[in-house]
Amino acid sequence: MSDQEAREPGLLQPVAGGGLLDRRLFLKKGLAFGAGAALVGHMRQGLAEEPPWMKTPGEPFTNYGRPSPHEKEAIRWISANSGAPGNGISWTPLHKLEGIVTPNGLHFERHHNGVPQIDPHQHRLLIHGLVENPLSFGIEDLLRYPMVSRLCFVECGGNSNAGWHEEPIQTPVGYFHGLASCSEWTGVPLAVILDEAGLRPDARWLIAEGADAAAMNISIPVEKAMDDAILALYQNGERLRPENGYPLRLILPGWEAVLSVKWLRRLQVANQPVMARNETAKYTELLPSGKARQFTFVMDAKSIITFPSPGQHLRGPGLYRISGLAWSGRGRIKRVDISADGGRSWAEAALQEPVLPQCFTRFRLPWRWDGSPLVLKSRAVDETGYVQPERRALIAERGRHGYFHYNAIVSWAVAADGTVSHVYA
Question: What is the pLDDT of residue 402?
Fold first, then answer.
């Protein structure tokens, strides 16, 4: 019996199958997660001999910080189209990160024709169409406006689409679900600019166009534009990077990322959508009823366990900290439940504060693994009452003709030897 169990009998009793423990244990002092047994020996060895980096001067200053070379595995994994240079994606390594903020250099990418190298002094934003006063802004003009900042996720509508496959993909979780990232975006509220332009009574849609070689364009309802859309100039405190839209990007919190047009150069106000490729041939799904699911926009509630997850290994029975991410385009995450017995019983996870709308939410739960094989799941519930569905329920609703908007519960199998794999369960 540990000292903690002696002080508080029953503290480490499971609250659900598979050894899941009470989330409130994170508020208690003295909960030990493993490495304490060898601590004294390591301390004595460390005190007896100074490491080499204590004997020589360190590295000089740099103009821009860079990661430690020992963290070289925390990278975006690139999946490019060899037949069309500049077309492809790169994945955020969610399994290598903690907290909720994605570093700028690890934010996922989706490009259709490469990353344009734009001179900010030549770039302009045009507002035209069904407006009383057509406007044109340089970047310096926009930098003079009052700005707002908000933390929110950006998720590609094609994120997690391997979940539609007949067999579960075996890859690190970030290279399966990592077309989603979360940043603090800072810029000018789009509503301010549209008010200045003066929308006409028949204005219903904005046609947004990017300045890349693909001339990416997409339709956005005026209601969303006037609600919380941002003309973003900064990401996580620094100016946007080229791969994330420098010098100007549109951000639509909670909506699929294709609408958050990068390298934004034009907003045409119209009375109907443009019916571009990325809202007809793509991001539209044929349902079992024969009807098409189009203009979905909002990304539904979703969660994934990032530790333990495929590619990671448990070193044997003991106390572990389950950790993961949840998010919803509908608002705040209200609750995340975790199961360690394939969904037969569930325990509520602790949510890291602050819990913000349309933002990553980090969840954690203590877990005592006894070494038996089991299946881990997480299930998100948002403030609207929407519950993340099981995979079989999602397929029954959507059919198998779509390739987008996959948000089903994900299952990880933990084997007796500590290996973790993706399963459909």
Answer: 82
Dihedral sign of CA atoms 96, 98, 103, 107 in order? positive
Residues β-bridged to residue 423? 411
Q: Structure tokens of 137?
A: 């802004």
- Neighbouring residues of 1: CB distance < 8 A, sequence distance ≥ 6: none
Nearest-angstrom CA–CA distance, 391 and 168? 11
H-helix or E-strand containing 348?
strand 347-348
How many other CB atoms sit within 10 Å of the CB of residue 331?
17
Mean pLDDT (whole number) for 109-137: 97
| Amino acid found at 229 | A
**Tens of pLDDT, residues 35-82:** 554 455 555 555 668 889 999 999 999 999 999 999 999 999 999 888
- Closest by CA to 423, choosing from 211, 238, 226, 169, is 169
Q: Are 150 and 182 in contact (CB under 8 A)?
A: no
Exposure letters 13-40 (e unless 16+ CB within 10 A, then b): ebbbbbbbbbbebeeeeebeeeeeeeee
Maximal CA-CA distance, the chain: 78
- Alpha-carbon distance values, 299 to 26, 106, 295, 407 (Å): 30, 21, 11, 8
Q: Kindly report whether the peptide bond that precedes residue 14 is cis, defined as omega within 30 degrees of 0.
A: no
Q: Please state, in angstroms and as integers, the Cα–Cα distance from residue 250 to each residue in 170, 186, 342, following that order.
A: 34, 11, 40
pTM: 0.93
- Whole-number Å distance between alpha carbons of 328 and 159: 14
Terminal Cα-to-Cα distance of the chain (whole angstroms): 35
Mean pLDDT of the chain: 92
Rg for the chain, CA atoms, rounded:
24
Lowest mean pLDDT among 33-42, 160-169, 249-258: 33-42
C-alpha 269/C-alpha 282 separation (Å) is 22
Residue, of 123 and 3, whose pLDDT is higher: 123
